Amino acid sequence: MKKIFVVLSVLTLVIFGFSQQNGGVLQIGIETEPVGFDPNLVTAFASFRILENVYDGLLKYDENMNLVPNIAEKYEVPDPNTIIFTIRDNVYFHNGEKLTIEDVLYTFERIMDEEVGSPAAAYYSEVESIEVLDSKRIQFKLKVPMANTLLINFASTNSAIVSKEFVETGNNLQLKTNGTGPFFMSEYVPGDHITLEKNSNYFIPNQPYLDKIIFRIMPEEISRVTALRNGDVDLIEIKEPLSLRSLQSNNYKVYRQPALSYYLLGFNTTREPLNNPRVRSALSLAIDREEIINMVAFGEGTITGPMNPTVQPWTITPENFEEYEYNPEKAKSILAEVGYPNGFEFNIMTASRYSFDKIAQVIQSQLSKIGVKVNIELVEWGIFLNRWGGSDFDSFISLNSGSIDPDVQFYRTFHSNGSTNVFLYNNSIVDKLLEEGRKEPNVVERIKIYNQLQNILVKEAPILFLYSPNVLYASQSYVEGFKPLANESLIFLRETRIEE
Amino acid sequence: MKRFLKNFIKNPLNVISIIILGIVIFISFFPGIIAPYDPLEMDSQNILQSPNFAHIFGTDQFGRDVFSRSIYGIQSSMKIALSAMIISSVLGTFLGLLSGYYGGLVDQIISRVVDAFFAFPSLVLALFIVALFGATTFNLIVAIGIVYVPIFARTIRGSVISVRELTFVKAAKIVGKSDFKIMLTVILPNIFSIFIVTFTTNFSTAILTEASLGFLGLGVPPPEPTLGGLVGQGTNFILTAPWLTLLPGAIIAIIVLSINILGDGLRDVLDPKFFR
Amino acid sequence: MSFSYFIRRILLSIPTILLVTLIVFLLVRLVPGDVVDMIIGTQNFLSEEQILQMYEDFGLDKPLISQYFIWLKSLVTGNLGVSLRTGEDVADLLVQRLPVTLELALLSILFSIIIGIPLGMISALKKNTYVDNSIKVVGLIGLSSPAFWIGTIFIVLFSFYFDNFTIFGYVSFIENPLKNLQIFLLPSFTLGLMIAAQILRITRTSMIDELSKDYVKVAHSKGLSKNKVIYKHAFRNALTPIITITGIQLGYLFGGSIVIENMFALPGLGRLLLQSVNQRDYPVIQAIILFIVIVIVILNLLIDFIYTIIDPRVNLE
User: Fold this and answer.
1) What is the pLDDT of residue A338?
2) Which of C141, C144, C289, C290 to mutate to test the interface with B (most CBs of B within 10 A)?
3) Residue B126 · residue B213 · CB < 8 Å
4) Which domains does chain A show, CATH number per domain?
5) Is residue B21 helix, strand or coil?
6) Does C251 touch chain A (CB under 8 A)?
7) Who among B215, B218, B260 is closest to C144 (CB)?
8) Which of A173, B149, C45, C247 could disulfide-pair with C303, CB 3.0 to 4.6 Å?
9) Any bridge partners for residue A345, and if so which?
10) At C219, is the pLDDT very low, low, confident or very high (cuts 50, 70, 90)?
11) Chain B touching partners, 3 or more CB pairs below 8 A
12) Neighbours of chain C (3+ CB pairs under 8 A)
C-alpha cells in the first residue's frame, strides 16, 4: 500500500513538474514608453502593449484575428440593431473586487461621455441605448443595423472594462491601474521599466504562464540588440530591420508579422495646390513605394491599398490601382495639365519617431525628380500631435492603425464628420457610402459599397496609403509561445513561456 | 611680427595644422568642388555600403554618400561655429572693455551678470536655449554665441585692467583723448594677442559644442548634414555599419585638433608676458 | 584672512545664484506663445487640481516680477513643480536620477586623476623628450576628440570582441555591485579620458613650473634624493592649479554626462534632461538646469576654500 502511495506521489510530482513549465521572468526591451494607463483614453501604441494584458474587453482576438469571447462568455446578435452580451461570473479586478454588469455599463457610458473624451467614442456613435437586462446580460441597441460591424470594437483596448467603484472613488486611471487581465502592473519607474506580475486569480485557468514580465524601456535600437546578444533581455522589439543581420544565429528566434497598420502621407485638402485631387493623385505616381520600403524598412513591409492586402474579402490589392504605378513622367504631365508645369512647393510635417522623418526624406528626394520641392518640418511629438489635431499642416507622414473591418478602417478617418478626419476632406458620396456601409447586413452588397469607396479614395487621394510595416521581434531561443498579432497586439504574452 | 612667424613655422605640427585648416576653410567656401556627390541624393541600389572606391566613406541607409555629406557637414559646422564666435568675441570684448576700463559700478554689474552666465556649462546653456527656442541655424548660432561671451568678457577685462595702468594710456587720458578713442586706438591693439588666443582656444570648443548638439539630435534638422548629426544618426548602425559614426567623428577630431595645435602654437610664440 | 575671505566669497556667490535663477526664469518666459498652453500642451494627465495648482505656482495672472518671486519662493521650499509628462513631483524625479549621474561623475573623476596626473608628471619629468612629446600629442587628441566619438569607438570595439559585456542600460549598485561597475566602466572611462587630457596638461605645466623653482634646486644641492623632492614638495605645490582645473572641469563633467548618459543609456540627470527637452517638459528642464548650475557654483566655492587651506601662501586678492 505504502509503495503504491509513494509511486503515485512521485508520478504526480513528475507529471506536475513537467506540465509546470511555468513561471519565470520575461524581460522585454521596448522602444517607447507608454503615455498614460487609462485604457479608455490612451492612444499611444506603447500604452496598448502594456494595457492589453492588464485589462480585458468583452471580446478579444485569437491568433488569426478572429473575434472570440473574453469577459463576455457569449454574445448574441438577435437582429442587426441589437447585441446582447452575457458576462462571466468569475472575473475579478486586481484589487479583489468582483466584476459586475454595472462595471460594464459604467465603462461604456464613460467611453461615450463627451467630457471624458475617449478616442473610442466615435465608434459607438450609433449606439442608441445600453440596458442591463439582468445581473449577467447587457444589451446594446443601435440606431442603424450595424451590429456585426460594431462587434470588432469590443475587442479593442480602448473598450476594456474598468471598475466603476475604483474610478468613482477618485482614482486617476492614467496613473493607477486596476484591471482584470492576466497580469497586474506592480511597478512603473518612468524612463526605466514597467513590471507586470501574474494575476493568480485570472479567469482562465493556467494562464498566464509567466510570473513576471518586465518591459525595459530602451529607446535606442542598438541598446536593445546588444542587450539581447548579451543575454540581458529575453525579447526585444525591432524597429530597424537591419538589426536582424546581427541576429542570424540559432541562439535567437525572429518573429515577423505583417501588420495591419499603415504609413500614410496625409494632405490638408484645403490648401493649394493640394486641394486639387488630380495634383494629389499625380504625386502618388511620383512616389516609388517600393523604394521607400527598401530604404526605410529594408524590405520589411508591403505596399498597401486602402485596405491591407491580407484582409479578405474587403481588400483591393494595389496592382488594381493605376495610381500605384511608379510613373514620374506621367505625374509630371498631369501636373502640367492642371497648371503646374514647373512643379510646386509644399511642406511635409513629421516627427522623429516610427521612421516618419526617414520616409519624409525619401519622398522629398523622389518628388524632387519631378520638380516638386518638399520642405520637411521636423517637430516635437507634442507639437506634431497638436498641429495634426488642428489641421495645421500642408501634409504629414504618420502611421495609422489598421483594421480587419472597413468601417473601423475608414469611417472616422474619411467621413466629413469623422473624429480623425484632419484632412478636412469633404465628399458627400464618400459620406453616403460610409454611412450605408456600416449598416448594410448583406456581405456581398457591403463589398460593393466599400469597393466603390476604395476606388474613390485612391482617385481623390486625400491621403496616400504608403505601406504596411512588418512587426518584428527577436527573442532568445528559450522563449516559447510568443505571437505578435497583425494588429501588433501582444496579448499572447499570456501564453508565452520560458523553456529553461 | 616676422620673428613670430619664423618661430611659429619651426614646429612641424603648427605647419600641418595650418594646412589642414586652410583646407577646411576652402571646403567651407566651396564644398561643391571637393564633394563628389550631392549630399542629399538618395540611391536605393547602394545603401549602407562600406567604404569603397566609388564612395570613400561608404553610404548611409538612403544610399547617400557619407563623404559628400561630411564635406557639407564641415561647411555647416564652420558656418555655425564661426558666426557664433564672431558674436561672442565682439559682444564679449565690448563688455570686457567697458568693464575693465571703467571699473566701479559698471564693472560690478557687468561682472556679476557675466559670472552668472559663466556658471552654466557650455553644452547645458546651449542646450537650454535650443530646447526653448527650437533648433534652427539662427538659433544655434545665437545659442552658441551667447555661451562664449563670458569667457571673452572675463579675459578681455583682465587684460584691459593690466593695460590701463600703463603710462601711455595715462598719458593719452591726460592729453584729453576721449574714452572711446582711447579704447579703440590704444587699448585694443594691446590686447590683440590675447584676443587671438582666446578666440582660437574657444573656437575649437564651440565646434565641439555644436557637434554635441547635433549628436543629441538638437542640431540643424535633417536632411541637412552636420558632422555631429551624422555621428548621431549613425549610432543606430554601430554594429552593422560603424563607418557612419567613426569617419565623420574623426573629421571633427581632426579639425578641432588642428585648431588646438594652432592655439597652442600661437600661445607659445606670442610672448606670455603680454597677457599676464 | 580666511574668515573674511570666506564671507566675501559666499556673499559674492549669492548674486550669482540669484542671477542664474533670473536667467532661467526669463529665458523660459521669452519663449513665444502662451506659457500655459505650452505647459499644458497635449498632456491630459494633469488633474484639475494639478492644473489649478500650476496657475498658482506660476502666478500666471500676476505681473512678471511677482511671478519671479513666487517662483523663487517655491524653489526655496523645494517645490519644483510636477512633470508634464507623468505628473510626478519633479524634486522626486531629480532625487531618483541623481545617484546615477553622481556615480558617473565620481568614477570619471577617478579615472581622470589616475590617468591624467601620472602622465602629466612623467611628461614634466621627461620634458621635451620623445616620451613627453608623445604624451603631449595624446593629451591634445584627448582634448580635441568629441566624447561621443571616443565613446562610439569603445562601443564598437567592445561589442565586437566581448560578447558578455553589458554596454547599455543600468543596474543599481545595491542590486548587483559587480554588474553595476561593469556598466559604468566604459562610460566613466570615456568621460574620464576627456577630462584626463586637461588634467594632464595642467599637471605637466605646473610640475614644470615647480621643478624650475629655486627651492627645488636648493633641495637638490642639499643632497636630498631626487624622488623625495619631487613627490613630496613639488607635487604638493603643483597640486593647487590641478585642483582649480578640476573645478573648471565640473562644468565639462555635467555637459559631458548629458552626452555619455544618452549614449550608454544610463538613467541619470543628463538623460532625463534630454528626454525632457524632447518632450517639452519645461518644469523638469528648468529644475535640472538650475540644479546643475547651482551645484557647480557651490562646488567651485568649496574648491576655492580647499585651495586656500592647502596652500596658505596663496594670496587671493
Assistant:
1) 92
2) C144
3) yes
4) 1-234+478-500 (3.40.190.10), 262-469 (3.10.105.10)
5) helix
6) no
7) B260
8) C247
9) A373
10) low
11) A, C
12) A, B
Phi first, then psi, for residue A2 (nearest 5°) are: -60, -45
Closest CA to A453 of A397, A396, A422, A415: A415
Angstrom CA distances, C134 to B255, C131, C203, stand at 19, 5, 16
What cell numbers appear for A12 in the block?
504526480
Q: What is the pLDDT of residue A34?
A: 87
Q: Which chains touch A (3 or more CB pairs under 8 A)?
A: B, C
Interface B–C counts its CB contacts (< 8 A) at 131
- A116 contact C CB<8A: no
A360 → chain B, closest CA residue: B223
CB A434 within 8 A of CB A199: no
Cross-strand bridge partners of residue A267 = A395
Q: Does C105 touch chain B (CB under 8 A)?
A: no
Phi, psi of A389 (to 5 degrees): -65, -35
| Strand A262-267 to A497-498 pairing | unpaired
DSSP chain C: -HHHHHHHHHHHHHHHHHHHHHHHHHHHHHSSS-HHHHHHTT---S-HHHHHHHHHHHTTTS-HHHHHHHHHHHHHTT---B-TTT--BHHHHHHHHHHHHHHHHHHHHHHHHHHHHHHHHHHHHTTTSHHHHHHHHHHHHHHHS-HHHHHHHHHHHHHHH-TT---SS---TTT-HHHHHHHHHHHHHHHHHHHHHHHHHHHHHHHHHHHTSHHHHHHHHTT--HHHIIIIIIHHHHHHHHHHHHHHHHHHHHHHHHHHHHHTT--SHHHHHHHHHHHT-HHHHHHHHHHHHHHHHHHHHHHHHHHHHH-TT----
Question: Is C298 at the interface with chain B, CB within 8 A?
Answer: no
Q: B180 by DSSP, 3-state: which?
A: helix
A297: enclosing H helix or E strand: helix A289-297
Q: What is the mean pLDDT of chain A?
A: 89
Amino acid at A35: V
The answer to whether the Cβ–Cβ distance between C274 and B116 falls below 8 Å is: no
- Chain B's closest residue to A361, CA to CA, is B223
In this complex, is the C-beta atom of C88 within 8 Å of any C-beta atom belonging to chain A? yes
Q: Strands A25-30 and A212-217, how do they pair?
A: parallel
CA nearest neighbour of C112 among C194, C210, C184: C194
Among candidates C147, C153, C254 on the partner chain, residue whose Cβ is nearest the Cβ of B246: C153
Chain B: give the shortest CA distance to residue C282, in Å: 9
Mutate to test the interface with C, among A38, A47, A177, A232 (most CBs of C within 10 A): A232
* Alpha-carbon distance C279 to nearest alpha carbon in chain B (angstroms): 10
Residue of B nearest to C20 (CA): B116
User: Are C146 and B124 within 8 A, CB to CB?
Assistant: no
C-beta atoms surrounding A13 within 10 Å: 11
Q: Measured between alpha carbons, how far is B67 from B72 in angstroms, rounded to an integer?
A: 9
Q: Alpha carbon A89 to chain centroid distance?
A: 29
Question: A4, exposed or middle or buried, with CB in 10 Å at 0-12, 13-18, 19+?
Answer: exposed
Minimum-distance CB partner of B128 among C16, C27, C141: C27
Each residue of A445-496: pLDDT tens digit? 999 999 999 999 999 999 999 999 999 999 999 999 999 998 888 989 988 8
Residues A434-438 have a mean pLDDT of 90
User: Edge-to-edge strand order for the sheet containing A395-400?
Assistant: A373-378, A345-350, A395-400, A262-267, A463-465
> What residues of A are in contact with residue C168 (Cβ under 8 Å)?
218, 220, 222-223, 226-227
Q: Is the pLDDT of residue C34 over 70?
A: no
Computed over every residue of chain B, the mean pLDDT equals: 85
Determine, for residues B238 and C156 on separate chains, whether the beta-carbon distance falls below 8 Å: yes
Contacts A218 to C, Cβ<8 Å: 168-169, 265
